[in-house]
Design brief:
By secondary structure, this protein is of the alpha/beta class. Helix content is about 45%, strand content about 15%. Bound molecules: 1,3-dihydroxyacetonephosphate.
Length: about 280
């Protein structure tokens, strides 16, 4: 079923677990994310991002994701990832997204606060929850560039940002980067704990691909409630396609099935890791 409202986030926060948000690009990745969530009997979010629908079309990919969410046996949210364009957010709300991210992280602090608060007011009026971002992760969301973190989130500013914007979830920069990097990144758990101490707003970890499981679960233990994953799923998709293309020739259905199965395995592993209530440090 399509998950509306912030109950999902509240439930994860109360349980000390996190919901996975996977970036989807194709019908196959949509199928895999829903299959994984159903097999784990866990809720999930699909990030139908402002960049990931560039090729397929926003309306088309969102419609597919919403249809898959509605017929799922578990709760599935459809989320607009990283959007800097307020008109695009309005369109996503009209298309039926259950949540949106306004990414004002490149703006000066006060402008980020003002613009994010305005998005929150408009989205809330339509029953859509909002993620904001403070601090900036380096890297491209759709490729792995392996560059270092740009600007870590200041814990004091984070508390003020959450209060002044009224966001339902707040993405913070605590050491990760978007995509896989040559040098393994780790979450700065002390910074994360300091941010979490100053606000009860659910925290979001971007750039989770490639993190060791114990660092990821420790981040959940320190207050992360939503975890964004793209590169690991994307790589599973590409690797499965490469292998299937070399083995299955022109049998497109077999190739699709192989891709879905590979992505389902990766997504289910991540969902399982994030569902562990006992968080080792
Ligand atoms: P990764 O590609 O590192 O998993 O990051 C995904 C992400 O944060 C999307 O917003």
């Amino acid at each position: 079923m399509l998950a509306r409202g912030t109950d999902l986030l509240a439930a994860e926060q109360a349980a000390g677990t996190a919901i996975a948000a996977f970036t989807v690009y194709t019908l196959e990745s949509i199928r895999a994310v829903v299959d994984a969530a159903e097999s784990c009997e866990r809720p999930v979010l699909m990030s139908v991002g402002a960049s990931s629908y560039r090729v397929t079309g926003a309306r088309e990919l969102a419609a597919a994701a919403l249809a898959a969410a509605e017929s799922a046996s578990v709760q599935v949210g459809v989320h607009l990832d990283h959007c800097t364009d307020e008109a695009e957010i309005t369109r996503a709300v009209e298309l039926g997204y259950s949540s949106v991210m306004y990414d004002g992280s490149a703006l000066p602090f006060d402008e980020n606060v003002e613009r994010t608060a305005a998005v929150v007011a408009r989205a809330h009026a339509e029953g859509v929850w909002v993620e904001g971002e403070l601090g900036a992760l380096a890297g491209d969301e759709d490729t792995s560039t392996g560059v270092a973190a740009r600007e870590m989130t200041n814990p004091l500013q984070a508390a003020e940002f959450a209060l002044r914007t009224g966001v339902d979830a707040m993405a913070v920069a605590v050491g990760t980067v978007h995509g896989l990097s040559a040098v393994p990144m780790l979450v700065d758990l002390n910074r994360l704990a300091a941010i979490a101490a100053g606000t009860s707003t659910p925290l979001v970890l971007h750039g989770a691909s490639g993190l060791p499981d114990n660092n990821l679960t420790a981040a959940v233990g320190a207050g992360v409630v939503k975890v964004n994953v793209n590169a690991e799923l994307r790589n599973a998709h590409r690797a499965a396609l490469a292998e299937a293309l070399s083995q299955d020739g022109d049998d497109l259905l077999r190739i699709q099935r192989t891709a879905v199965a590979a992505m389902t395995t990766v997504a289910a592993e991540k969902i399982t890791t994030l569902s562990r209530e006992e968080q080792p440090t």
